[in-house]
Specification:
Elements: E1 16-17, E2 35-44, E3 47-55, E4 68-74, E5 81-82, E6 95-106, E7 109-118, E8 121-129, E9 135-140, E10 145-150, E11 159-165, E12 180-185, E13 192-198, E14 209-212, E15 217-219, E16 222-232, E17 247-256, E18 264-267, H1 278-281, E19 290-297, E20 302-309, E21 313-320, H2 321-329
Antiparallel strand pairs: 1-21, 2-3, 3-4, 4-5, 6-7, 7-8, 8-9, 10-11, 11-12, 12-13, 14-16, 15-16, 16-17, 17-18, 19-20, 20-21
This protein binds beta-D-mannopyranose.
The site of beta-D-mannopyranose (BMA) has 10 residues, from strand 2 and strand 6.
Length: 332
C-alpha cells in the first residue's frame, strides 16, 4: 500500500494561470461534446493547432466510449476556433477510443501520439499528418503502455520517446505504481533499448504513478520535460461526478541531458502545477486533476503550458523558460 500520504500541494510561484481559463470547454465544440480535455498543441504552418480529447457523458456518473479527437486552430494560442468535424477516430470492433493526443513537429511534419483503449488492453499509438485531415498511423504498441511523447530531434539517428507502461505484476506497492520509461526507434515502428527514466518513488509529490506529460522542449541547458504525478488518499471524499474518484494529479518538471536524454540533470522537488483554481478543484468529472499534455516555447521565452482541468476543460498557464529551468537546477 502507499508508504505515505501527500498533504496539501501548491503550484510553483513561477506559474501564471491565464485569467480567462478555460480556453476550451464542451460548449465551444460544434458537435456532440460533454467534456474536453488533454490536448496536443503545436505551432504548425503559421498557426497554432490543437487536437483535443472529446468525451461524451454516458450517464450521471460516467463518461466515455464515444471518445474521438477534435481539431481547433488559433492565431495566438489563446482564442481557438474548433473545426466543424472531429479529425481522428479509429473506432472499430477492436479499438474502442483514442485519447490524450500529443503533437510533435519533427522535420516539418506533425506527429501525433495517442492512447487507445482496445478490447485487449490499453495501447499507445503514433501517427503523422501534414494537414490534420489525413493521418497515417505508423505504429501501435502492445498493451499496456501509453502517454507517449516524442523528442523533436533524433539521437544517434534514432527517434526517442518517453512512455508509461503499466507493470501491474511484480512491482511492489499499490497496484497502480507506474513510472516513466524511455525507448528508441530507427523508424517510429520498432521500439527498443528501453530503460527506466524516473521512478515514482523519486517524486515527492506522488505516491501512486507518474507519466510523461508534454513533449520535451529543447533549451541550451537541456530538455525541459513536464510530467504528471498522481497521489491517492483513501480518506478523500468522492470528488467529482465519477463515483469513486479519490486521486489527485499534479504536474512536475525535470531537465534531461541535451546529448543523452536518459540522464536526468535535475527535477523540481515540488509540483509545477497543483490543482488550486476553482475550475481545477470543483464541478468536474474528476476534480483535482491537472493533466499537462502540451507546451509551446515562444520567442519571448514564455512557455505556454496547456492542460486538462478536472478532466472537463482545457486551460492555459504560462511561465518563463528560465524560471522553469531554474526549478530543475536549484540547489537541493
Ligand atoms: C489518467 C488518464 C488521463 C486522465 C487522468 C486523470 O489515468 O486516464 O486521461 O486525465 O487519468 O483522470
Amino acid at each position: 500500500m502507499n508508504e505515505r500520504l501527500i498533504g496539501k500541494l501548491t503550484s510553483s510561484p513561477v506559474i501564471k494561470r491565464y485569467s480567462q481559463n478555460p480556453i476550451l470547454k464542451a460548449s465551444d465544440v460544434p458537435y456532440k461534446s460533454d467534456l474536453v480535455s488533454n490536448a496536443g498543441f503545436a505551432k504548425y504552418q503559421g498557426k497554432y493547432v490543437m487536437v483535443f480529447r472529446n468525451d461524451e457523458r454516458i450517464d450521471e456518473y460516467t463518461v466515455g466510449e464515444g471518445l474521438y479527437l477534435g481539431l481547433a486552430y488559433s492565431d495566438d494560442g489563446i482564442k481557438w476556433e474548433v473545426m466543424p468535424k472531429p479529425c481522428f477516430n479509429m473506432q472499430n470492433e477492436e479499438f474502442l477510443n483514442t485519447y490524450d493526443p500529443r503533437l510533435i513537429i519533427i522535420d516539418g511534419k506533425c506527429y501525433m501520439t495517442f492512447a487507445m483503449e482496445t478490447r485487449h488492453g490499453v495501447r499507445g499509438g503514433i501517427a503523422v499528418t501534414e494537414d490534420f485531415e489525413k493521418f497515417e498511423v505508423i505504429s501501435i504498441s502492445a498493451p499496456d503502455n501509453r502517454n507517449f511523447v516524442l523528442f523533436t530531434e533524433k539521437f544517434n539517428g534514432n527517434y526517442v520517446r518517453l512512455e508509461r507502461p503499466f507493470p501491474i505484476y511484480g512491482r511492489p506497492g499499490y497496484p497502480e505504481r507506474f513510472d516513466i520509461w524511455i525507448s528508441e526507434s530507427p523508424d517510429l515502428v520498432y521500439w527498443g533499448k528501453s530503460d527506466l527514466l524516473l521512478g515514482v518513488e523519486h517524486v515527492p509529490f506522488a505516491n501512486l504513478k507518474i507519466g510523461p506529460g508534454a513533449p520535451p522542449i529543447k533549451t541550451p541547458k537541456g530538455w525541459l520535460t513536464i510530467f504528471h504525478a498522481s497521489d491517492y488518499d483513501p480518506s478523500r471524499q468522492r470528488n467529482g461526478y465519477e463515483k469513486t474518484w479519490k486521486k489527485r494529479y499534479c504536474s512536475g518538471v525535470m531537465l534531461l541531458d541535451l546529448e543523452d536524454p536518459r540522464k536526468i540533470i535535475g527535477m523540481s522537488k515540488k509540483p509545477l502545477l497543483a490543482p488550486e483554481a476553482e475550475y481545477e478543484i470543483s464541478g468536474g468529472y474528476r476534480n483535482d486533476v491537472i493533466f499537462v499534455t502540451g507546451n509551446i516555447l515562444e520567442e519571448s521565452g514564455e512557455v505556454k503550458i496547456y492542460y486538462g482541468a478536472a478532466d472537463t476543460t482545457i486551460c492555459l498557464a504560462t511561465a518563463h523558460i528560465d524560471d522553469l529551468i531554474g526549478l530543475c537546477t536549484e540547489p537541493k
